[in-house]
């Protein structure tokens, strides 16, 4: 199974992984990981539910005050540990049991992929249906969505996502993940700009922009603040070992603070553009911005149908979503693949095949639970899809983030040196890692657990 280039020798027992990104390749791959369904699908509907502009400001604050420091922490842990979440945690803490805490992230990434790939598959289907025009044959988009998710089609689209991502991962860091991101991320930007020009020239653009960018603080609640923080975490791919694992492939001379700023700016720019695409569209076509998770799949087709060349713009929009989702899937899959490679000395191809098969065994029932045959099989009010979404986003992700802050803030003494930061910046970073980030994470955790 193993091919020559990606043999087990990519892991050196002492030095850790020997695979490396180029500087630009790493930035693009990390932006690819962070920009995904979280920005376009989740960010827009959550912003819509929380009243628009003021929530966007909160999101930016969370990104700057907590998200970026934790991102830098994950990258530093990854690069210094040169391993997966488990190895890096135990190596830097000097205690083997810390590896078990890192393992939470490996499991989280594995589980997130099972439902993230379901939605990624939907986006591929919607892209094809939109371009062919089939999507617009009916005007009842809720019914279209229900029929599609209840059919067996999502299974095949999900398999397509698995095959595409599996091939890229098996090719390795520089000739797989880096190369793929280098091709598609600029493409993504081009599609975004085309979509932006289209939506900013719609009749309702001014109203949509006002809703999205003009802050009305009366709309905010305590829950909004927690949601903004959770979203900042998910959107920056934190707490699941993804940035940590990518960090292991970064060259020593690359500046981690510059990388952190670049990824933060990329993620924020993408969220901003996503909002500037979605809200003018919803206001122009009379769709409620707070219509919930179906906003992208149910509400937007109606808007595309009413637009000149709607099938083309709809197709572009869903291709954009699919690309963004696939580059995030790459980061999610790399977490358990990296773990298997280090743990069992498997070659990359073998580890990838193994992870993909194991993931698919769980991903299939998850897809069937998302509107299909298993959607009514519930346990304590949630089906399998809902459970995985709930447990990973609300429990495992904050926990994974919390462990990183404790490791960096209190346990591992070399964190400051690894980042290369000095003086005031270093102090501010450590202060956030020690006090601000963990306290806020615990708050989200307690909130979602229903304790506060
Ligand atoms: N950040 C991605 C998004 O916004 C989701 C993700 C989380 C990807 C964790 C990789 C790892 O959609």
Automatic annotation (TrEMBL):
The keyword Transmembrane helix belongs to this UniProt entry's keyword annotation: yes
Endoplasmic reticulum listed as a keyword: no
Key words, A-Z: Membrane, Transmembrane, Transmembrane helix, Transport
InterPro entries attached to this UniProt entry: Na/ntran_symport (IPR000175), SNS_sf (IPR037272), YocR/YhdH-like (IPR047218)
Protein localization: Membrane
Domain of life: Bacteria
CDD domains according to UniProt: SLC6sbd_Tyt1-Like (cd10336)
Location, primary (coarse class): membrane
PROSITE patterns, A to Z: NA_NEUROTRAN_SYMP_3 (PS50267)
Membrane-crossing residue ranges in chain numbering: 21-41, 53-77, 97-116, 155-173, 180-200, 220-244, 256-279, 316-341, 353-375, 395-412, 424-446
Membrane topology listed for this record: Multi-pass membrane protein
SUPFAM superfamilies associated with the record: SNF-like
One GO CC term on file: membrane
Pfam families in the record: SNF (PF00209)
PANTHER family: TRANSPORTER
Protein name (database record): Sodium-dependent transporter
Organism: Paenibacillus agilis
């Amino acid at each position: 199974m193993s091919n020559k280039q990606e043999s087990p020798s990519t892991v050196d027992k002492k030095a850790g992984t020997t695979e490396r990104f180029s500087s630009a390749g790493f930035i693009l791959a990390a932006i690819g990981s962070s920009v995904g369904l979280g920005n376009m699908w989740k960010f827009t509907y959550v912003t819509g539910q929380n009243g628009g502009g003021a929530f966007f400001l909160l999101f930016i604050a969370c990104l700057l005050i907590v998200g970026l420091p934790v991102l830098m922490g994950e990258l530093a842990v990854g690069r210094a540990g040169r391993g997966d979440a488990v190895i890096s945690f135990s190596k830097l803490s000097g205690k083997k049991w810390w590896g078990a805490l890192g393992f939470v992230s490996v499991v989280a990434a594995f589980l997130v992929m099972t439902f993230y790939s379901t939605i990624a598959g939907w986006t591929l289907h919607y892209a094809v249906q939109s371009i062919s025009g089939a999507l617009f044959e009916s005007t009842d988009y809720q019914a279209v969505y229900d029929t599609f998710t209840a059919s067996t089609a999502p299974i095949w689209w999900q398999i397509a996502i698995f095959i595409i991502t599996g091939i890229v991962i098996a090719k390795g860091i520089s000739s797989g993940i880096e190369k793929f991101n280098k091709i598609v991320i600029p493409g993504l930007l081009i599609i975004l700009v085309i979509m932006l020009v289209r939506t900013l020239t719609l009749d309702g653009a001014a109203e949509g922009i006002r809703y999205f960018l003009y802050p009305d603080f009366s709309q905010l609640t305590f829950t909004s603040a927690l949601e903004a923080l959770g979203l900042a975490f998910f959107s920056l791919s934190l707490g699941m070992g993804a940035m940590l694992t990518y960090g292991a492939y970064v060259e020593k001379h690359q500046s981690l603070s510059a990388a952190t700023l670049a990824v933060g700016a990329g993620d924020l720019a993408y969220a901003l553009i996503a909002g500037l695409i979605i809200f003018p569209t919803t206001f122009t076509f009379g769709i409620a911005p707070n219509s919930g998770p179906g906003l992208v799949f149910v509400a937007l087709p109606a808007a595309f149908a009413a637009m000149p060349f709607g099938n083309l713009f709809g197709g572009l929009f869903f291709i954009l979503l699919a690309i963004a989702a696939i580059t995030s899937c790459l980061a999610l899959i790399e977490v358990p693949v990296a773990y298997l490679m280090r743990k069992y000395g498997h070659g990359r191809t073998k580890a990838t095949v193994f992870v993909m098969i194991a993931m698919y065994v769980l991903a299939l029932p998850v897809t069937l639970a998302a509107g299909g045959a298993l959607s009514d099989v519930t346990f304590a009010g949630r089906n399998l899809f809902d459970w995985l979404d709930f447990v990973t986003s609300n429990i495992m992700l904050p926990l994974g983030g919390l462990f990183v802050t404790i490791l960096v803030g209190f346990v591992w003494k070399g964190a400051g040196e690894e980042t290369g930061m000095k003086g005031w910046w270093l102090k501010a970073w450590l202060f956030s890692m020690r006090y601000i980030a963990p306290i806020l994470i615990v708050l989200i955790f307690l909130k979602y657990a229903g304790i506060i």
